[in-house]
Design brief:
Helix content is about 55%, strand content about 0%. It is mainly alpha-helical.
C-alpha cells in the first residue's frame, strides 16, 4: 500500500466516522435505554443522567 493509498483510506474512514456521529440528545436517549435494559430482575432501574451546563463536561 502506498502512502497515497493509506491517506485515501484514512480520509474515507474519517468521513464514515463523522457521518455516524450522534447528537447529545440521541446519546442521552440511548443511555436511558441501556439503564432500563440493564435493570435487575426485570425491574428497570431509574436512569442516572447528569445535566452538564456551561460547557463543563468534567
Amino acid at each position: 500500500m502506498t502512502r497515497d493509498d493509506w491517506i485515501d483510506r484514512l480520509a474515507e474512514a474519517l468521513d464514515a466516522f463523522e457521518a455516524r456521529q450522534h447528537t447529545t440528545e440521541q446519546l442521552a436517549a440511548f443511555a436511558v435505554y441501556l439503564e432500563t435494559l440493564n435493570g435487575t430482575h426485570g425491574q428497570p432501574k431509574a436512569p442516572r443522567l447528569h445535566l452538564v451546563t456551561g460547557g463543563d463536561a468534567s
